[in-house]
Automatic annotation (TrEMBL):
Domain DDH positions: 16-150
Name of protein: Bifunctional oligoribonuclease/PAP phosphatase NrnA
One GO MF term: nucleic acid binding
Gene3D superfamilies assigned to the protein according to its UniProt record, in alphabetical order: 3.10.310.30, inorganic pyrophosphatase (n-terminal core)
Protein species of origin: Candidatus Ornithospirochaeta avicola
Domain of life assignment: Bacteria
Pfam family, one: DHH
Domain DHHA1: 224-305
Length: 306
């Protein structure tokens, strides 16, 4: 079902409409939430409240409200790019009267009143595709957000989830005359501090007996370089595209737990992520561990895939 058919049906029933993303937001999360905001504002004349955690990297796309003491009761909530309810930036969104879930991950938790779950390159692709199909007016602001999410979540259109439909929708966004080189340079730029951190991350890279590449970034390293969670994730680039090592994983300290980011080239990692309470895409997933003592368990599970 076209997501805008659902919005047509529900949006006039509510005075308050919220658009939420997931914890540790990325380009697709911010792009889809703000892109949808601009589409609704332009085509429905409604102001929505976008709720996301802070991430400076994508502040050029627009502004949003930080999660906190928001009362969602009696409201319409649109939750984007979030496969399971407990990974929302504000889990109290389930108090809403109606929840519309828009997501492109493997289906684990159909928590919405409406669940639009499709295996595409990005959540932004779903929103942009349905906007084109519906004949909605796509402003440059909306197109910039949606193209950013499509590009960043697909590895600049190089990952396996990219299809001819992905490129067709991207071309429709380009028809709005957005300046891709200008805004994507912001999405992909690094400051000098991050580059110095990546140099250290290379030196911390290890390999298991079966060939799984892994890096652990402890809190003291994060403090040394004043790293935000999204900056820590830049260390994944150290392990990407290394010959004969298709599977790699990044561990980092995060709020008293261990954040795990699984990546692979052609080997499904989502089931391993799920076994540790996480989830995500077939070749890109995440999880949380209680402590660093569990890291060997994860590495053993990944070794068994090789």
């Amino acid at each position: 079902m076209n997501i805008f058919d659902i919005i047509d049906k529900e949006i006039t029933r509510f005075d308050r409409v919220y658009i939420l993303g997931h914890i540790q937001p990325d380009g697709d999360c911010i792009g889809s939430s703000l892109g949808l905001y601009y589409l609704i504002k332009e085509n429905y004349g409604r102001e929505c409240i976008v709720v996301n955690e802070e991430i400076e990297k994508y502040s050029y796309l627009g502004s949003w409200t930080l999660p906190g003491s928001i009362d969602y009761s009696g409201s319409l909530v649109i939750q984007v790019d979030n496969s399971v309810r407990n990974r929302s930036c504000d889990c109290s969104f389930m108090d809403a009267s109606v929840v519309i879930k828009i997501d492109h991950h493997i289906v684990i938790d159909s928590y919405g009143t409406y669940n639009e779950e499709r295996m595409t390159s990005s959540c932004c692709e779903i929103i942009a595709s349905d906007a084109v199909e519906k004949g909605l007016k796509i402003t440059q602001d909306a197109a910039t957000c949606l193209y950013t999410g499509m590009s960043t979540d697909s590895g600049n259109f190089m990952y396996s989830g990219v299809s001819s439909s992905t490129l067709f929708i991207a071309s429709k966004l380009l028809e709005t005359k957005i300046d891709v080189s200008k805004f994507l340079s912001k999405a992909y730029e690094r400051n000098l501090n991050t580059v110095k951190f990546i140099a250290e991350a290379y030196n911390r890279m290890k390999v298991t007996e079966k060939g799984v590449l892994w890096i652990y970034i402890p809190q003291e390293i994060e403090d040394k370089y004043s790293l935000s969670p999204d900056m820590v994730s830049e260390a994944l680039s150290c392990m990407r595209n290394i010959k004969e090592h298709p599977l790699y994983v990044l561990f980092s300290d995060l709020f008293g737990k261990i954040r795990v980011e699984f990546r692979s080239q052609g080997i499904a990692v989502n089931e391993v992520a799920s076994s540790f309470g996480g989830g995500g895409h077939k070749f890109a997933s995440g999880a949380r561990l209680k402590s660093a003592e569990e890291i060997p368990l994860v590495l053993d599970a990944l070794d068994r895939l090789l």
